[in-house]
Specification:
This protein is mainly alpha-helical. It has a domain of about 90 residues. Helix content is about 60%, strand content about 0%. The longest helix has 19 residues. The radius of gyration is 16 Å and the shape is globular.
Length: about 130
């Protein structure tokens, strides 16, 4: 619905180019809300470094719950934890919730995502 509305209001045939000109798309707002809501859970969640004593690259990543069904892997809590693990460390280590939201919002505005798969495929070395 938002793609069609965006094409109609701007008069362009493709929406992907237009999304970057607009400040926020529906996928961007979904990413923002998921990450803001999951932050409290992420503070108390078990990290990969707490499971074993080895120093690995994913030491600070949250340990993902095991699930075998694709439907479970596409639900909100699982996707939100996956997105949180994909964030750069400088965003995760924000001082307060308000600062985290502001930094995350400016990050998403600077790097707009057309879909969730684009978010997961993006290089997060900004």
């Amino acid at each position: 619905m938002s793609k069609t509305l965006s094409r109609m209001t701007t008069g362009v045939p493709r929406c992907k180019v237009n999304i970057s000109e607009a400040s926020f798309s529906s996928s961007d707002s979904y990413i923002l809300e998921c990450l803001v809501c999951i932050r409290d859970r992420a503070r108390s969640a078990e990290t990969r470094g707490e499971i074993h004593g080895y120093r690995t690259r994913q030491t600070r990543h949250i340990n993902m719950p095991r699930c075998r069904l694709a439907r479970t892997q596409k639900c909100y809590p699982f996707i939100a934890l996956k997105m949180y693990n994909r964030l750069p460390g400088w965003i995760k280590e924000s001082r307060s919730d308000r600062h985290f939201r502001a930094v995350l919002k400016s990050f998403i505005v600077d790097h707009p995502f057309y879909s969730l798969s684009e978010f997961f495929d993006a290089e997060m070395t900004f």
